[in-house]
Write a structure and sequence with these properties.
By secondary structure, the chain is α+β, with helices and mostly antiparallel strands. It has helices at residues 2-19, 24-31, 35-47; strands at 51-54, 61-64.
């Protein structure tokens, strides 16, 4: 599972780098990953201080720092 999260973190980073701020729901849909892998990847990137979360609820967006 950790390998999937690590790979997911790379996918999320590359997607945000190419497309800019994106909601978690759109990331899940566009990257075709499970909820567990997506949130593990987001946690991984947040721990490394590579992403920020803007907004709240359904309007939340994730972006690179």
């Amino acid at each position: 599972m950790i390998d999937q999260m690590s790979e997911g973190a790379g996918q999320v980073w590359h997607h945000l780098n190419a497309n800019g701020p994106t909601s978690p729901a759109q990331l899940k849909k566009q990257l075709k990953v499970s909820t567990e892998v997506l949130y593990g990847a987001l946690g991984w990137l947040a721990r490394e201080d590579k992403i920020s979360f803007d907004g709240n609820g359904k309007r939340q967006k994730v972006s690179l720092k």
